[in-house]
Structures are given as structure tokens and as C-alpha cells.
Amino acid sequence: AQTVTQSQPEMSVQEAETVTLSCTYDTSESDYYLFWYKQPPSRQMILVIRQEAYKQQNATENRFSVNFQKAAKSFSLKISDSQLGDAAMYFCAYRSQYGGSQGNLIFGKGTKLSVKP
Amino acid sequence: DVKVTQSSRYLVKRTGEKVFLECVQDMDHENMFWYRQDPGLGLRLIYFSYDVKMKEKGDIPEGYSVSREKKERFSLILESASTNQTSMYLCASSLSAGRGVGYTFGSGTRLTVV
């Protein structure tokens, strides 16, 4: 079964600095999808970024980018020019390409990011 | 803009009460999910559904049931609420896994059982 591990329960960054959140996963599949979700104190889980495993190019969305290392099964999130509004819980997630319960999202335990003014 | 709507943001119920948590999506998604979220435990899957009238148990189904009579609505039922069911409940929906998309989440219901 696939697993997702976020080894940093909490992290802190100074406003305007860059921070990287780590995520590793375990799978025997070759095609799959990876996601980062943000959950601010308002509780709404918001999709930040998505990566398709068959694409070598790292996904980017404005200040958010990933470092996807397929062989190492690593999927880290980099937040550049951190803003106070980036303070949130961040979840890494894996999704198989297959249907049924195998295709359910598998979440890591999350990393709580604090942003210092 | 696509939406998943959870009927209540905060709910306080008494022990032994039957509790209904409602979730409605407007995206014609096949899949719907109920999670509970507790500090340090992350997101835990309670039940999910791939189609109308079908349901499957997740990782922690005990004490819960679900109903999906219409494609857009997925209800979570606590048959007899207990204090250990005090938690944040999140509903989500998605297209099928092969489409490679993530889930869209509702804004959560914080349930307190007293």
C-alpha cells in the first residue's frame, strides 16, 4: 500500500523568505499524481499545486513550486517570498491512477507552517 | 466556481443523539468522501462513495453510517453520538481517480458532543 510521509510537523519562516516543506512517499506504481493542499485556520482545504508523475518538469503556481524527484520518491514544496497569509497546515497527498479505493487520495499527517512578520 | 457545501459550520449535540451532517456538491462528481480531522492524527477516512446508493467503509467507519440517495448529496450519520466523536468533519468530492485530479473540500463542520 502507498504511504505518504511528512517528516516536519512544524516549520517557521520569516516573512519574504523562502521555505521548503518535505514530503516522501512510497509506491510501486509508475504513473500517479501528487498534490499539495493548504488548510488555513479558516479550515477550507485548498489545492495548492499538482504534479503528474510522468512529467519530469516541476510544477509551479506563482510563488509555489515543487521539487519532484521520482526516483527518490520525494515531492517537496517551495514557497518563495513567504507572506503572512501562507500560514497554514500543508498536506502532501498521493493519488493512484487506478479507480476504486486504490484511487483514493492518501494524505500525509501535515506540516504546520508559521510565518513571522 | 465549483463548490462543496457542508450544511453546518459548528454543531453541538448531546450524547446519544442521532446526528446528520450534510454535504452537497455542484460539480457532478462521481466520488464523495467523509473525513474526520483530529490534531496529530491528520485526516482519517470514514466512508466514501463512488456512485449513487453505493458506499464503502474507510479506515474508521465504526459508529458512523452514510447515505447517498442523489449524486450531489452525501450524508454522514452518527447513529448515537458519543463524546469521542467530537471532531472536525470534512466532506470532499472528486472526479474518478483516472482523471488525475484532486479533491474539492467543503469548509468543514466542527462537531462537539457533550
**Protein chains sharing the most extensive interface:** A-B, 28 and 26 residues
| Total beta-strand segments of chain A | 12
Class based on secondary structure composition and strand pairing of chain A: mainly beta
Helix tally of chain A equals 0
* SS elements, strand count of chain B: 12
Strand content of chain A: over 45%
Structural class of chain B: mainly beta
Number of helices of chain B: 0
The overall average pLDDT of chain A, rounded, is 93
Strand content of chain B: over 45%
Radius of gyration of chain A: 14 Å
Q: Give the C-alpha Rg of chain B.
A: 13 Å
Helical coverage of chain A, percent range: under 10%
Sheet bearing the most strands of chain B, described? 7 strands, mixed
Mean pLDDT of chain B: 93
Order of helices and strands of chain B: EEEEEEEEEEEE
Give the termini separation of chain A. 41 Å
Instruction: State the distance separating the first and last CA atoms of chain B.
Output: 37 Å
What does this structure look like?
The complex is a heterodimer of chains A (117) and B (114). Chain A has strands at 3-5, 10-14, 19-21, 24-26, 32-39, 46-52, 60-61, 64-69, 74-79, 88-96, 106-107, 111-116. Chain A is mostly beta strands and 117 residues long. In chain A, strand 8 and strand 9 form a beta hairpin. The model of chain A has no long low-confidence stretch (mean pLDDT 93). With 114 residues, chain B is mostly beta strands. Chain B is built from no helices and twelve strands. Chain B has strands spanning 4-6, 10-13, 19-21, 23-25, 31-38, 42-49, 56-57, 64-70, 73-78, 87-94, 104-105, 109-113. In chain B, strands 2, 5, 6, 7, 10, 11 and 12 form a seven-stranded mixed β-sheet that branches. In chain B, a hairpin with a 3-residue loop joins strand 5 (31-38) and strand 6 (42-49). Chain B is globular and about 40 Å long. Chain B starts with a strand and ends with a strand. The relative contact order of chain B is 0.33. Classes of the chains: A mainly beta (117), B mainly beta (114). Chain A binds chain B through residues 33, 35, 37, 42-47, 50, 52, 91, 93, 95-105, 107-110, and chain B through 33, 40-43, 45, 48, 50, 56, 88, 90, 92, 94, 96-98, 100-108, 110.
